[in-house]
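Dear U.,

For the methods section draft, I wanted the exact inputs and outputs in one place so we can describe them consistently. I've listed the two proteins in the order they'll appear in the manuscript figures. Please don't edit the C-alpha cell lines directly; just add comments below if something needs changing.

First protein:
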Amino acid sequence: KVDYDVCSNYGNWLYSAGIGNDPRDNRKFNMIKQGLDYDGNGDYVRLWVPELQGIKGADIHSPWALSSAALSQAGVTLGETYPWPVVTAPEWSRHISQRPGRNSHPRGRRGPAQAPVQHKDRGIDFYFSRKKDV
C-alpha cells in the first residue's frame, strides 16, 4: 500500500523543517519524541537503517546516548558505521531518559556518551535558540 497525499505530505515536510505558519511560539519538531510515540520499539528505524539493527528497543532512536559497551555489543561505531548527530537539541534529553526500560538519571537528564561538537557560526543555533528576535 502506498500512502501519498500531496498536500498533507508537503505540509508535514514544511512543518518538520520549521517553516510555514504555526500559531505556537518557539515550536520545534522533536524527532526523538516522535520516534518514541510512533515507533516505540524502533521497528521502522530498524527496517530502513540496517546499521542500527543490533540496537534493541527504543534505544535505536538515540544511539549516540548509549554507552560504548552497548554500542560495541550492537556492532555500532559512531563516526564509522553510523554518523554522529549533526545537532543535538536540549529538548531531546528528557525523552532519552524516559525511554521504556531505562533507568532515569537522578536529575532526569542523560547526556550523550560523547557530545558532538556544535559550531555556533553555522547557523543551527538560531533554530534551537530560546532568544526571541521580533
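Second protein (the one for the lower panel):
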Amino acid sequence: PILASAHESSCIRLWSIQGNLMKELLPFSEHPSGPLTVLCTDISTKILFTGSKEGHIIRWNIASFLEDSRNRKNKIKEELYWRAHAAEVVDLFFEEEKNVVVTASIDGSVRLWHARTGYYFGYFGQARKFELSDTSRLILPSDVNDFSAIIKEESQHMEKKKVIYPLTLDRDK
C-alpha cells in the first residue's frame, strides 16, 4: 500500500503505509500546473492523475516505481498534461473500463476526457450523446484553448532537493 498527497507547491509526495516519505516530485510540464487540489489512481495503482487549481490534469505512470521503489532506475513518468477547466479542479475520477477521466470544477462543469490522450468528449448536460469511440475529431471546451501535451519518454521530472545557499556579500558584483 502507498499513500499519495498533493500540495499547494505542486509537489506530490508518496508515502509508505508506515508514514515514511518514499518520493517527492514536481511536474515538469511547459506550463506550471499550480497548486494541486485533487488526485486519483486506477484500481491497480499504476496510473496517478492529479488536478490543479488552474484547471490542469496530469497523468503519471507510477507502476515501475511501485514495483521496486529502492531501484533508482524505476522512475515515475509524467505522461500526459492538459488543461481541463478554466478554473480549479475539485474532483477527478478515472473509469478504467471505458478509459475515461471525469473532471469537475468550481465553475460547475463536469467533463469527460480520454485517459490516454486527453481528448475531450464533452460535458454532462450536453444535448448530444457522448461518442467514446471516436477520438479523431479534435474539439475543446469553449473556455479552454490548449490541446493536451504528451510528455516525451526521455523527459525527467524535477525532484525537490534541499539546497543551502549561504548569503555572502561580494562587493565586486
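Candidate sentences for the figure legend, describing the second protein: Confidence is low (pLDDT under 50) at residues 154-163. Helices lie at 63-67.

Thanks,
Y.
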